[in-house]
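pinning this so it doesn't scroll away 📌
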Amino acid sequence: MAHTKKNENQPAKPAMAVGKETVMETAPFEYQIEPGRAHPLGAIPDENGVNFAVFSEHATSVELLLFDKHDDPKPIHTIQLDSYKHKTFYFWHVYVRGLKPGASYAYRVDGPQDLHGRGDRFNRNKVLLDPFASGHTDTLWNRANACDSEDNLATSIRGVVIDLSGYNWEDDRPLNRPLQETIIYEMHVRGFTRSPSSGCQNPGLFAGIIEKIPYLKELGITAVELLPVFDFDQKEVKQLSPVDGTSLTNYWGYDPISFFAPQNWYCKSPEAGNHYTEFRDMVRALHKAGIEVILDVVFNHTSEGDHRGPTINFRGFANSTYYMLSQQDRQYYMNYSGCGNTINGNHPITRKLIVDILKFWVTTLSTAIILSRKSS
């Protein structure tokens, strides 16, 4: 049966019943655990609670971790999903009645380590980010700790439950300007306003772009093309500076870790789950000024890299589904992207993921997407 416990390493009090579930009580448990539904994927709140759903075809165990605060090193409750009540085909799901938006969460997933056969890389020691998370915080994140086989709970990424409903677009509509009349400004969100010379009160953030709209209008810009805003690991060290030897981290963002979440470093209050509010505020303000928003996106690889890279999400949930693996030895990844791995767009689950992402950013966030590139 599904059960919860507080702070995994603490002794639990006697079990008690909550609804039809078993709870290992070490603190007051104010939630009710229900089977939930398989779709939509992600953490979807409603007026009574939150539905959690993830895909993992070969997992034998899935645990949902709930944190009191985004930077707590340990969860306040761990919910063990019952494979009979909380699994439909290959989808694991649970409804937590009473949970509210703003809650921080993550997963542990266990299953076979079949590196040379099917290519599965399950490791319960690794705390995983929901692949469909609407936002996350990386306050405690240590990338190196996600690369070995040891437990990384205290330094893991946490998802944030975000309510996407109720935003006031104020009659915002797509501008639909003919392409021949479009003047595009290609822009890095952080780099555009990061310098003190920008004079922005919110340098390097989505809010900073709003402050510079008069400047864009003065230039005659009719559309901004934003370099990657899908959440990426800005703490990833790419190389050392040849000038002073300091770490050079991921600036450009062409290494996504979460396709549905706006980059948390571009937000003023990611820990509060304001990712979408801040992004949509920017889009709405640009549209009001007659400026369209185009996104430069990455779908051919992720930040998890090759077999030596970190286990962040996709690798830990369904490695052989989401990635193209070597037919000679499936512990290795096909590296057509030149970035360590290649997304397996041949698999129907992965294709659905990409289509869902496109629909989401266009319909929910009112942006346009750039998909193609010229062949060399």
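📌 and the second one:
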Amino acid sequence: MTPVLESVALKDNRRSNAKHSALDALKTGFAIFHLKAPSLFAFRPRLETEERNLKSIFKIGQIPSDNGLRDILDNLPADELNGGFERVLPFLESRGKLSPYRYWNGHLICSIDVFTDQPVVYVLDALYACAPVVNQIMDQGVGAKYVINAKEKGNKHLFAQFDAMNEAGQIKWTKKRVKDCLYHFGYANDLAINKANEGVKCNLLYCRYKPKNGKEVVFSWVTNIELNALSIMPVMRMGRSRWKIENEVFNTLKNQEYNYGYNFGRGKNNLATNFAYLMMLAFTVDQIRQLCSRTFQRVYQVLDTRVKIWEMYRYTFRLVICEDLVGFEHKLLETCGLRVP
């Protein structure tokens, strides 16, 4: 788990004889969120077993005090933690775990920061329907695509072009029925994204969606994928996937013991941001383990919910001394009554 932090290039400007290293502080912060502690006070080890496991499993040399941890994290540049996230995609790629997430022409559908070494479709909300973001994506080359939610209030010139074309009979309209749902699409290519950037072109997809027993809902997206009768459904699905990604991630962070709404400290500089990054890094590692770890998958079959898994995880961590992560996972299997390989 901790190699994702050991790859971070730290700039620790404290004196050379500081009692606790910046890396130990990062590992301690990561352990807080990995173990789903609701506060720094609750995380503080009370048993010798807990302290030994923090050092053996998380490879922490010296565990800083609460104030010491806050002080170190507050003064570490927040962007240095990006190195931990940059290891995720290569790791998943090497294990063949990205293939199920490729959708349109082999592209990954991402609602995250920009990558440069993967064919990606970025699905973004309406805040990003602007020329600087579109240009940044386009600068990555022909393999970079986007599907960005667009609203008339924030993109008046774009929708004015669409309306003018519609009045002139130039908008292509089509209806598609999927099961009991009706989609009514209108689309146009090669529109200016706004009046100040006439040279930045995009395509606009307008969709009225009517479920069988619900009210009609209207969506619209800008994209650099050429819109035609074959592409409008995939573009619509990619655009709507952002809500699913965002909703499920926030739901997990709020309701599965990551303590997303808890304030671990604001600090004067980067404390709150670094805590947020460490929480997201712990969440990311958990997602990888759920996808790749046979141990996690076997335990999940027995305990049925992730919340129960974290409870059993903490129980084993507190009471059973383990020499490393592999030993801990074996003890976790034994605690659940499962055979150790």
